[in-house]
Structures are given as C-alpha cells and as structure tokens.
Amino acid sequence: MPESDLLSFGSAMLAALAVGALAYAFLYPYFSGDREKDSRLKGVIEPKGRETALEQATSRRKSVGDSLKEMENRHRAANKVSLRLRLERAGLAITPRVYWLASVVCGVVLAAIVTFSLQASATRMILTVIVGLVGVFGVPRWFVGKLTARRQGKFIKELPNAIDIVVRGMKSGLPLNECLAIIARESEEPLAGEFRDVIDQQRVGVSLGEALEKLTTRMPLPEVKFLQIVVAIQQQAGGNLSEALSNLSTVLRDRFMLKMKVKAMSAEAKASAFVLASLPPIVTVLVYGSSPDYIAALFDTRTGNFALLVCGIWMLAGVLVMRKMINFKF
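The chain above was modelled as a monomer; its predicted structure follows.
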C-alpha cells in the first residue's frame, strides 16, 4: 500500500475515533442513568418548591410589614386630637360648645373669688387674670383628663376577660363576629359600649380591621393597639387567631399586674407629695379661721399680695416637679 494511502487511512481513523469520543461524552449520561441520578440528587438538595415557598414567605412578610407601617402612619396622623374626640374618650355626651361655656363659667367663678378675696391692687389684677385663665383652660382640661384616665382604666381591666370570651367562643366553633357580639351584650361599660360600636360598624360594611383601628382612636392604649395588630396580622398572613388572642390575654394580664405593682410601690411617694402640696393652703385656711388679723396682711396689702403671688408660683412649680417624679410611664 502506498505511503499516501496509509496517511489518509490513519487520518480517517483518527477522525472517526474523535467523533466517537465526542458522541460517547455527550450521549453516555442519557444511557447510563447518571443524568437521572443527578436530577434526583438535585431534587433532594434543592426541592422544587423551596424557591416558591421562600418567595411566598417573603411576600407574606412584606405584606404584613406594609400593613403595619400603614397603620402606624395613620395613627401618627391622628395624633392631633380634636375636642370632640377628647370628650368622647372621657365618656361625656356634650358638644364642644357646651364644654367651652362651662369652661368660661368656671373661669369667671374662680376669678370672682380672687377678686372679692383680695384688696384692690395690681397684684390682685394679675392674680385674677391668671386664675381666670387657669379656670377657663386648665381646670376643665384636667377634669376631662381625669375622666378619660378613669374610663381607660376600667377598659384595660376588662379587656383580658373580653379576649378570653373570644378565645373560648372560637374554640367552641362560634364565629368571631358572634364572640364580639357576646362581649357587647354581657361586658361592663365602657368595654361593652366600645365593642358595640365595633359591631355596628361591621353591620354597615366596615371591615374588622378598620373598626378596630377606630377603636384605637377612641381608646389610644397600647393594649388596644396590640389587639389591632394581632387581628391585622391574622388577616394578612393567616394562622390560629384563638391561640394568638390567648397569648395576648396573658400578656395583658401580666402588664396589668405590673402596673398595679408599680402603683403600690409609688403610693407612698404620691401620699407624701399630696401632703406637701396641700399643707400650705390648709395651714392658711386654719390660721385665717383662728386669727384673721394675723394673716390679713397677706390679703390687704400690696406686699402681702405680691408674696402670695410669688409663693403660689413656687408652689405650682413644686407640685409639677413632684408630679413628674411620681408618674411612671411604661
């Protein structure tokens, strides 16, 4: 065989071997089962639904976070409380006009008492103006604040019991709306009235989340905010609402017990502050009743009136400082 034919034959054989090797490399996994093995191994290491589950969990967390952020923004926008809302929080069924009329009457009465108690002087005029302004803007506001605090205290005390009613009702098969209706019928005021408003709002088409948000506006308490957040999360992400409410009831009871413990520990300081603040007026009244001539200089002379003004300002400053020291917010 000629040398050229041998070279051609060798080249053809090398080319055939190269093509066969490439074909073997590409086709071997399909016939040997390695590709199926790799697919099963990949399925074990990275489940097909893992990426989808992670995406769903991320989307759910984002939805809940956006909902809570929106609720917080609405709560901040509602911080500017109107007079009508303050009266509603205090449980007073009066209009702002009646409130201002009562405030003016209170200011006029207090100013008249100061006017007829002191001798005519510049100090009496200043005291009359100050006491009149306090009577118009300070005393009614303080009275409404006390009524609001008392009403909110009753609400907080009964709220864990109301949540327990919801938990037991849902575990026995009752719907949430029916459990809320039971609270509105059988609980004490102001809890019954507030949940009655929630039920009435739902009957006209308002969602439970929006109704609880309005409840938070009327009762701006952390405990009510907790309830609103729990219901909002359950509506957005699902889950066992009865278990979440049961945990919330336990937390609210613990908070109430802590608040009562703090109140008991601060009772001595509050009593001391009350005695220190009330002692000067009581002594003044007793001295005036037993020896009017001895204390008359405070009311009949300009120097005495000025001394009363200065002492009153210092007494007010002391009372405010003691109030700041004995009030605990948590």
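The chain has a mean pLDDT of 80.
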